[in-house]
Amino acid sequence: MIDKRVAGPAEAVADIHDGATVMIGGFGEAGSPIELIHALIDQGASDLTVVSNNTGSGEVGLAALLKAGRVSKVICSFPRTANSTVFPELYRSGRTKLELVPQGTLAERIRAGGAGIPAFYTPTGVGTPLAEGKETREFDGQEYLLERGLRADFALIKGRLADTHGNVIYNKTARNFAPPMAMAAAVTIVQVGEVVDPGGLDPEAIITPGIFVERVVEVATPAHESELVAAGSTYP
Amino acid sequence: MSQTQINGRTREEMAQRLAQDIADGSYVNLGIGIPELIAKFVPEGREVIYHTENGLLGMGPSPIKGEGDPELINAGKRQVTALPGAAFFHHADSFAMIRGGHLDLSVLGALQVSAEGDLANWSTGEPDAIPAVGGAMDLVAGVKKVYVITQHCTKEGEPKLVERCTYPLTGRRVVDRVYTDLAVIDITPDGFRLVELSPGVDFETVQERTGATLLPADGATR
């Protein structure tokens, strides 16, 4: 019997090792798997490379993982937020490295990695500082950059509903990077509001098929990052 | 550059002017800042579908207070609504729409625009700044038309329309048209060409505040 449920966030992230590459879903707080990130902070893995669109806000969730000194490098499109000083301090002091990637290139690098495509050509970034050191090639009179696919050891993502086979449905714009990240990681861990039995989801409505998901954790009432930040919460 | 006070268009009037040029049925991505003001000025009778790169087509205005969902946001991370006919999708699909040339129009702000249509809008290149690019490079590389909406000059009075950008580029030869407080200007193979002046602004004033040659409007005699 296939049953991908695990007891809780702590069990779900228990084997994330030092030096792992971890993709973390979310665009701002939408889709940020905050309970899984907090479990990862508790677990203690360090020297992580984190692939995520942003670097968190306040001192909870992704910003708290950074603040705890666990991340040696972020691969990211927009590491600036109005209400967090965590990443800027780490970046300026050289403790966390940054690989800045245009947002669409980041999404496509992740998708390509998950789809078995080692590299691809894109028009994005041609003639800009982000093209430096990258191979270029002309197709049909236009210049393109070679970008590498991205894979990860783990992905931490958030959905609304999953079944025990790991099929996932998301909530609105919280979907964002989660489907491609689920494809690109060796072990994808999804936290969802509710887990149902096989047959409980309409197969036509499933966004991430269970083959891309290894572990499912039910977090019935996930915290909202903006509410924690507004309340001045910190983690741990 | 010493300048006398010229009252060109306000931010709202700039947005209103640009909105007149958005065709019925367009799929449009509006950047953060002045571009966000445009949607409310699109003339009645035109249906425009707004794309936000974090995964929504059919974006509507801000929710009524207390009825928003922190997981229904725009690219500026503010809560929005989804209109009837809206669709959600993941990031790789969202940028396939952008990069694949499926969107009709992208409207962005600018630090500088060059006479060849180069755009600089993501970094001033200061060593201590935290570099952040977001989706701007993808938008200018892929969307069919790229309009810039910006003040004509910086707060210090320096021209933003220049011969060559000195700030790091977002894209090379990507801008089609610029809407400023003083004028609407096309990027043509010959450089900046005036489309129209803002009310009460004359050509010489705009040329004086532009860092490259400004060609008169097509067919105009001066």
Descriptive notes:
With 236 residues, chain A is of the alpha/beta class. Chain A has one domain (9-230): Glutaconate Coenzyme A-transferase. Chain A is 22% helix and 27% strand. Chain A has helices at residues 9-12, 34-43, 61-67, 86-92, 103-114, 178-184, 225-230, and strands at 21-24, 48-51, 71-76, 97-100, 119-122, 136-139, 142-148, 152-163, 168-169, 185-196, 215-218. In chain A, the strands form 2 sheets. In chain A, strands 1, 2, 3, 4, 8, 9, 10 and 11 form an 8-stranded mixed β-sheet that branches. In chain A, strands 5-7-6 form a 3-stranded antiparallel β-sheet. With 222 residues, chain B is α/β, with parallel strands linked by helices. Chain B has a domain at 11-38 and 101-215: Glutaconate Coenzyme A-transferase (3-Layer(aba) Sandwich). Chain B starts with 10 loop residues before the first helix and ends in a 7-residue tail after the last strand. The mean pLDDT of chain B is 95.
**Poorly predicted tracts of residues of chain A:** none
Shape of chain A: globular
Written as H for each helix and E for each strand, in order along the chain, the element string of chain B is HEEEEHEEEHEEEEEHE
Form type of chain B: globular
Annotated CATH topology of chain A = Glutaconate Coenzyme A-transferase
Q: Rg of chain A, please?
A: 18 Å
What top-tier CATH class of the domain at 11-38 and 101-215 in chain B fits best?
Alpha Beta
**Any idea of the CATH topology of the domain at 11-38 and 101-215 in chain B?**
Glutaconate Coenzyme A-transferase
The CA-CA distance between the termini of chain A, in Å, is: 37 Å
Placed side by side, the strands forming the largest sheet of chain B appear as 4-3-2-1-5-8-10-11-12-13
Largest sheet data of chain A: 8 strands, mixed
Question: Would you identify the regions of chain B where 5 or more consecutive residues have pLDDT less than 50?
Answer: none
Class derived from helix and strand content of chain A: alpha/beta
**CATH class division of chain A:** Alpha Beta
- CATH architecture label of chain A: 3-Layer(aba) Sandwich
What fraction of residues of chain B sit in β-strands? 15-25%
Major sheet summary line of chain B: 10 strands, mixed
Mean pLDDT of chain A: 97
In angstroms, what separates the terminal alpha carbons of chain B?
24 Å
Helix percent of chain A reads 10-25%
User: Pairing-aware structural class of the strands and helices of chain B?
Assistant: alpha/beta
